[in-house]
Write a structure and sequence with these properties.
The complex is a heterodimer of chains A (281) and B (301).
Chain A (H helix, E strand, L loop, with lengths): L1 H38 L20 H9 L2 H32 L5 H10 L5 H14 L6 H25 L4 H8 L4 H12 L1 H16 L3 H6 L8 H10 L1 H39 L2
Chain B lengths: L5 H33 L17 H8 L6 H30 L7 H13 L2 H11 L6 H8 L12 H29 L3 H9 L4 H29 L2 H7 L12 H10 L4 H33 L1
Helix pairs in contact in B: 1-12, 2-12, 3-7, 3-9, 4-7, 5-7, 5-10, 7-9, 9-12, 11-12
Classes of the chains: A mainly alpha (281), B mainly alpha (301).
Chain lengths: 281, 301
């Protein structure tokens, strides 16, 4: 009997590793594809071989990105936009979330509900009115325009998420702080904000990701090549698949690596932030 | 706390006012402006001199004989959402169950690799899959022909195949989210429950049905609701993999259909009306789904 049980569990574990192995291949394959394409020399861009390190692998595509294309400029543009959106997102979400968590005011319930409901807006529902507004204000093809757009799409979720996290911090902490002589601003900045660090990190990550690789909004707002952010550049390489596929691969690798590192190192908090945000309320 | 001093009120005011301004700017104003546009004849020619025309645009949404029409796209969107969610949840929960066995070594590494599809930016996921579906040079056809001796498939040039291609790309990117959520839920189930079940001689199937599923359910239901809304509204994948609805606008979901109407054909009034229709479809779904899952939850407990 015991022996039999050992045997079935050995079979089960072997099967488990096989399943995991299969899905590891599935998860890795497209990622390796990007990598492979980026290493292909110019005369072998359209190859029909499936090897991961191509013959005559070279870093020419990476060099070409920086020497022959405005890739560095797009990198700077994207970094600038993403940082401004991140700072705006963190500043507004941390304070608005706090207000929603700690105070009772008219319209609070409606406000919270409406933040949740924005998740059901199809992309065009925010995009179209705000786009027309930007046209009227002559803010098309400006960074102000795109920062406003990105903040508007990222903020509702970030505020909701911050509010959920503040709810888990007991109010007695602020009370203790005010007894010790802090005023309420100090209690918020010195006691509550440091405790909410994990949620702030998620808000920052979310705002950053919402802008760093966003394409459909950028395609409507940024028109000059010199204004472009990375996603627009990437798409332009992809459109000429024959000639610039290698550039696409190299650019994708450069864009993806920092995001993946950030994401993997923060994924634990990301999930707790998500579930807190959606379960609490 | 001295809650009624002037200073305290000022403090609350300073914190609450930005919240209201943000709420107004990013939710309330766009929503109502969208309603106004949907009742108008606004388009590229009438961007400044538009006028209110009543419900004309809504009538057009439901009756315009375009190719494809609203009902065909709606049906496709429902199929897309159901198929994707089914695969996301089944693969995600299954992998979580496999990964959560205590005998498995190297959990952290498996988890990190399996999470990759979620971590790679959607734009790059979409464009890379589009490259992989290329007829002559794409990896998918190369695998089919070189490894399995199957004929190559014209993935992106035929409506059905293009739709399947878009679904494959989205299934790939969506299962890690469900896996991570399910894994978190599984880890919070007390081990004693399984030990007690073992003593009672419960089978693997009974443990799954009577312990695991009821206990991960409260966490999975909100995740599935959120996943449904995200999938229904996912513009990136369908737009970029099918290159704006190719072949000849046959590969559209509601959200890409309305994006094309608004930004490629400049039909602002029509686009706004369709946006509102999509929003109410999702709102109705969420209310019904949340309510019915609450009802069954009560049956369980």
């Amino acid at each position: 009997m015991i022996r039999n049980k050992h045997k079935t569990s050995a079979v089960r574990i072997t099967l488990s590793y096989l399943v995991l192995g299969f899905f590891v291949l599935v998860a890795l394959f497209p990622v390796l594809q990007i990598f492979t394409v980026s290493l292909r020399p110019a005369d072998r861009l359209l190859s029909t071989s499936l090897e991961i390190i191509p013959k005559n692998a070279s870093l020419d595509n990476y060099v070409a990105l920086f020497t022959e294309r405005p890739f560095f400029l797009w990198l700077m543009n994207s970094t600038f936009v993403a940082l401004v959106v991140t700072v705006t997102g963190v500043a507004l979400a941390s304070t608005c979330g706090y207000a929603f968590s700690r105070y009772h005011f008219i319209g609070k319930k409606f406000g919270l509900l409406s933040l949740l409901v924005t998740q059901m807006f199809p992309a065009t529902m925010l995009l179209l009115p705000m786009y027309i507004m930007l046209v009227m204000l002559h803010l098309i093809n400006t960074y102000i325009g795109i920062v406003v757009m990105y903040s508007a799409t990222a903020l509702p979720f970030c505020i909701w998420q911050m509010k959920g996290y503040y709810d888990t911090i007991p109010t007695s902490l602020e009370e203790a702080g005010t007894i010790d002589g802090c005023n309420q601003f100090q209690a918020f900045f010195k006691i509550i904000l440091p405790l909410a660090a994990p949620a702030l990190v998620i808000t920052a990550l979310f705002s950053f990701m919402a802008s760093w690789t966003e394409y459909v909004v950028a395609a409507q707002i940024l028109q000059d090549t010199e204004m472009w952010t990375l996603p627009l550049g990437l798409k332009s390489f992809e459109s000429n698949m024959g000639s610039e596929w290698g550039l696409y691969g190299a650019a994708s690798v450069i864009v993806t690596i920092p995001v993946v590192i950030l994401f993997l190192s923060l994924s634990r908090w990301l999930v707790s932030g998500l579930t807190l945000g959606s379960v609490k309320g | 706390m001295n809650t009624n001093t002037l200073r305290h009120r000022l403090y609350v005011f300073v914190l609450v006012v930005p919240a209201f301004i943000v709420l107004f700017g990013v939710v309330i104003y766009p929503f109502f402006y969208n309603v106004v546009i949907s009742l108008s004849n606004m388009n590229l020619r009438h961007i400044r001199d538009w006028r209110i025309v009543g419900l004309d645009q809504y009538v057009k949404v439901f009756t315009e004989p375009s190719q494809p029409d609203f009902y065909a796209v709606f049906l496709k969107t429902v199929i897309w959402t159901v198929v994707n969610l089914l695969f996301h949840v089944v693969i995600g929960v299954f992998l979580a169950l496999v990964l959560n066995q205590k005998e498995i070594r190297g959990k952290a590494i498996f988890r990190a690799i399996l999470i990759l599809p979620w971590a790679v930016p959607q734009l790059i996921v979409a464009l890379t899959w589009r490259g992989m579906f290329n007829y002559e040079y794409g990896a998918i056809n190369l695998i089919l022909t070189q490894w399995f001796g199957l004929p190559a498939v014209q993935w992106l040039k035929q409506p059905l195949e293009a739709f399947i291609a878009v679904i494959i790309a989205n299934v790939w990117l969506g299962f890690p989210f469900m896996m991570v959520i399910a894994l978190g839920a599984l880890q919070s189930i007390p081990q004693e429950l399984y030990e007690a079940a073992d003593i009672d001689g419960a089978s693997w199937y009974h443990k799954l049905k009577n312990i695991t599923i009821p206990l991960i359910r409260p966490v999975m239901v909100p995740a599935i609701t959120l996943g449904t809304i995200w999938t229904f509204n996912n513009l990136n994948i369908v737009w970029l993999v099918s290159n704006a609805g190719e072949p000849s606008d046959q590969t559209h979901l509601l959200v890409s259909f309305v994006y094309k109407a608004a930004f490629n054909f400049y039909r602002y009034g029509y686009g706004a009306a369709l946006s509102i229709v999509i929003f109410f479809i999702l709102l109705a779904f969420s209310l019904v789904f949340m309510r019915s899952s609450k009802a069954t939850e009560n049956v369980y407990s």
